[in-house]
Fold these 4 entries.
Entry 1:
Amino acid sequence: MPRETNRIIGVVCAALLALSLGLPAVAQAEVGVWITRDEIMQLPMTGESWDAVVEAAGGSALNPDVSDQEDTTPVRVLAKAFVYVRTGNSRLRDEVIEACRDAIGSEAGARTLALGRNLIGYVIAADLVGLPDDLDNDFRVWLRDLRTRDFETRTLVSTHEDRPNNWGTHAGASRLAIAVYLRDQGELDRAADVFHGWLGNRRIYAGFSYGDLSWQSDSNRPVGINPKGALKDGHRIDGALPDDQRRGGSFGWPAPRENYVWEALQGALAQAVILHRAGYDVWNWEDRALLRAFEWLHEVNDYAAVGDDTWQPHVVNYYYGERFPAPVPSRHGKNVGFTDWTHRGGVEMSPAAPMLLP
């Protein structure tokens, strides 16, 4: 399928700008997997949000275990990278480097849910601190292998392309982080198409295997987020996530408050942030599907984020200019966090400069 017109135009314009400045086009790609060093340097070093990042950065990063889907080491490593960049504390950089080194090989016995939750934190941290050349080479080889290695008959890529629920969204987030880190434009484009299909554009991608279809607005055309205006038995299901909502039971009303929906959105929002930075107009895809998901949870299901989901509304408020309940300090999630510090205020909806990869 052809890519979006605005993205193609953006790539061409960025390339022309680079040429006009006498710079190699690849220089325009330095937008960061999640955030850049320059952006971090503009963030405050006071307040509850900063204190929470510092506290997490002080935690142990010894014995990382990528195979453990409940391991919180990756988010502590992420916090260490944030605080290192902001303060210049080289000890924290050393701890990030050692954690990335020790993570390699710790994936034995993993399920792809663990890979999806855990890898993204190490990749963002490595991107921010800069690994030594020898380790960076090993780290890249490891990441390339993990994308397509079988774990209980699934790979990170196949999970993203087959599972339209929390498993697939987490897998997609780590897949995209790896693609940007490896500067793999083809993989980035493919993963973007899969995510676009999950949001509802079946013309671009429709290869998912769905479970109970009763929460779908159209069981013949199932999607990851129900389309704008969707109703069932007179009830609004516009914005509901059918393949995670079904885990609370077949369609019924009142709708169950199913926490798997919030976990699926952890992976989905992480994908969206990475894609936005890579130049995709993801926040507007499918009638602002991600915003509609939040509207359904708050306006219809009366189910605001709690616990390790509280980083999410900060992201949605940041990109959409909304005011969903967003606790400060927020808790980190199963994959990323500290967005009450990194995603303060708001930005325009236009995507970042497109990636220009060799």
Note: Residues 197 and 203 are 7 Å apart (CA to CA).
Entry 2:
Amino acid sequence: MKDDKKIFVKEGSKINLQDYDTAYTGGFEEKKNAKEKLQSDIAKLSELQYKLYASNEYSLLLILQALDAAGKDGTIKHVMTGVNPQGCEVTSFKEPTPEELEHDFLWRCCKRVPRKGEIGIFNRSYYEEVLVTKVHPELILKQNIPGINKVKDVNDEFWQSRYKQINRFEKHLSENGIVILKFFLHVSGKEQKSRFLERIDDENKNWKFSMNDIHERKYWRDYQHAYEEAISNTSTEYAPWFIIPADHKWFMRTAVGDIIVSTLESLDLKMPELSKEGKADLQKAKEILLGED
């Protein structure tokens, strides 16, 4: 699915989300088959994570962006279920704190970039700074940026500059061994409504619901446009976007898992080889252990 034209966004593409079917299932005719594929990929991911950690050359950064109720949390839970938590960290980015607002917009995410050999997952990310802030440009004024004194100053030139800053940042990460995969979980307005109603009707899911979800739903088309612009301007060879159909959770999770596994496999990860001296030390250690009473 990594190269599926209905999911993968080629660099330079001009995105119109209406061209992407939120109910697409990638050739899977049955839910059962997709789940079997996911289980197979979960097992492969566990092995690949071990090699990633042992080789200590690359790290993997997964960025998940979506509108409310699209399924970010569930995707992380189901796809990463077989991953060793010692080599994986999930960071959920909420509204910026006063301290974070005193720094550049990339600062808080930069601190959470995964170390060599590890997997980092961003549940939302610095892309909020060209999504939520684009729908609500008044939020930019809180950042005290020179020359940005009123909403009118937050113009197209400003956004183009931010896209370029993001691309430069991701290029820097890529050149330092951080493999970046970006997923937009694309849910329809109809399906989002259904999931909101489920959260309201199910007492066990009430805690997931917020009246702010209803407020933001009024800006549906604005968010669609913001995502179209962000994805069009920031999908690159070194940090590609994947528009994942999210109306069917079982396919969404399978697609994300398949892309992660195929990407790690393409790195041709190898277990580290010991030098002659290292092997000699192992043999010596074995002799010592076997010689103990």
Note: The CA atoms of residues 2 and 262 lie 7 Å apart.
Entry 3:
Amino acid sequence: MALAELEAEMPKLGGKKFSAKQIMKWIYSKSARDINLMTDLSVELRKNLAESWRVGSLETVNVKKSETANKYILRCADGNRIESVLMFFGTRNTICLSTQVGCCYGCEFCYTGKMGFKRHLTVSEILDQINLVRTEAGIKINNIVFMGMGEPLANYDNTVKSIRLINASEGFNIGARHITLSTVGLADKLTKLIKEGLNINISISLNAPNDDVRRRIMPAAMVFEMKELLDASRKYQAATAADVTLEYVMIKNVNDTIECLEEFIKKARGFKVNLITLNKSSACEWEPSSEHRIHIWLKRMSEAKLIGTVRRSAGAELNAACGQLGSGK
């Protein structure tokens, strides 16, 4: 709940308005998931809260760890399972959040897409991932990426409310420039997001130089043509001054040809570009592009004055990298 919502509930529960801030501090600063631990609340308020309220509903099923990442398999109250990933980049600890159980967009390289869509996650389930992970790991989380299971903008209202609570001073207090949302390209929702005033960074899962190639890789994501998606992305970037990055999963002989490169360069002007090595999973029979081909792309983009980097996905050894979530392994 947002602070104003919680404040409105306090008189009904025998608490004062200021009790709402105390509760928020326990949840977001101290990671408390047990109401009885909130010892600066009155006994009456704790009793009334405990009778019908709860803090979070996820349970940890399994944790897999490596040097680059930890993968958390979490069980929802209804028995559905989701996965979250904690990634380590030097001094930065980044959590990758899921927003849905499964996904309806069926990208050919993505295991989650092969699951199909089951349901949206609630605000509580999205935020509880942060509390569980940082408590288990015992570390501070610096960055949030909405790049886990599901399409964040398809679960629009719950995603937006979650971002507000992540960003709020009485919430997790993580700045907008440390929050990135990845989308398959729902142009209408991206345009709507401008009006929310969140000003978070956006990653567009583009993965193709034109609609024909993109339709082969991301068939269900072709609700919007590439021109409409890129126009919406430029509008978002201009309105918010936030970063909009084009994500491009490099797939051998599918989207990595020289012809694809030259066409992509024309479309990508004005954006940052992340080239991503295809992560193998049982969902995909395609092969990743060679290191040599990726080097050619980087060199040519540099010549064309595009800012391009290669994103090495953390957690591939755990089936925790881009395109691998949902296996439960």
Note: The chain has two domains: 3-52, 59-318.
Entry 4:
Amino acid sequence: MSSSALSRFFTFPAMLITALSVSPFIASLDVQQGGPILRDPDIWWHLRNADFLFSTQHFPTKDLYSFTTHADTRVNFEWLAEIPYYVGFRLLGDRGIFLVMLIAVELIVFGIFLLCYRRCADVKAAFLASWIAVLFASVNIGPRTILFGWLCFLAEILILESYRKGRDRLWLLVPLFAVWINLHGTWLIGLGFFFIFIASGFFHGTWGSMEAVRWKPQQRNKLLVTASACCAVLFLNPYGWRLVAYPFDTIFEQNLSVRFIDEWRSVDFQTFHGKLVFVVFAGLFIFTLARRRPWPLHELLFALVSTYAALTHKRFLFLAGIIICPILAVELVGAVFEPHDSKTNKPLLNALFMAGYCAFAIFHIPTPAKLKDAESQYFPVAALPQLQSSCANAHVFNAYEWGGYLIWNQRNIPVFIDSRADIFEHHGVLADYLKVTSLDGSLSVLDHYQIGCVLLQPNSQLVTLLENSPNWHVQYQDATAALLVRTTH
């Protein structure tokens, strides 16, 4: 390859972009330990739903997997996002799931980089801000359907940014929301941000560092028509109004689930993510005071809403990364980074680093054997034969995190609860689960549901209680799972 070709392809910006591609591995994928692919309890439930859809050609509308809420109405609110993971699994097994997740994460990372670069026009500032966004997002990285929701959100923000700069692509929002409603409930966040964007243009003026520019009548009318069309296409889904209503059910009717599930809890400032949030927000505050850069009203409102959401529920740190980090990129230019001088380009060194990054990524894609081994560390793999032989005709009380795994791998044994808590909270099952696991009348609740087998982590309080009960005995136990069987009824 000639020196001119080297200089053209192996540039410093290209090297930084390649380095960004391995950021998810370093930040959170933890593939040497099996990664989050096998620690996420929801993926198995999603695979089972997709399998039902493909095998029956019907959308599931009832609970088919538990004995506690069997045949009750249930909405599969993420059905479209399940399909890529299911296809990946059918083609390449667990590794296929990993690769689908990796592709989605990489698209998000590059989408954030594009947003940062369009804001600041500096590759170094965009690179650093994108890396910080990946660290924010690490709280939510895994084989999760929400990744497709964040991809849609990124697309929306890019479209809105273009509109503010005079490039009209608003029509793309309509098909985007038509797809988004079937992918994930984050469509409601996207719609909320769209309304904030529209409302910010109803004001005009400057207030300190804040500024607002009023929409022209033609702009305003087009925005309102587009918003109306986006709301209308939300009903283009197989569940109708029930799918549109589901996010509101989560907000107003699933209070116990929100308190119980870890990712819905507030940010703990004693953890890595809490300290990262403080450092980033403090840095942004200092930069803003020092530079006194004017803030567009919609940008300020976006930042406030995403900050509140992230501090209230740590799962929305991902949202904060998408919104806050492009703003941070703007502040980094001049304050930290000087514009890149292409004359200092070192193509051979860049090529060496790029090759190293690519090799690192390829080496850290886990083998099927490594994924299977890691699976046994988080799920009751070895206990399944005993569960089948001892509990085939019994009601099984299972760990919440294992419900999805069991309905995928032990299909003839209905579970007590699976990893999707919505329907179980509505019917009081989740409350009973928490009573049992916290030893609040555990034995009476087990009797009420006629539980014949209990499958939990061996260090759980209930296992200790039942081990010392004359009516129960340990059928199987290893480092991951303990199976206890009732001896008398």
Note: The first strand starts at residue 205 and ends at 207.
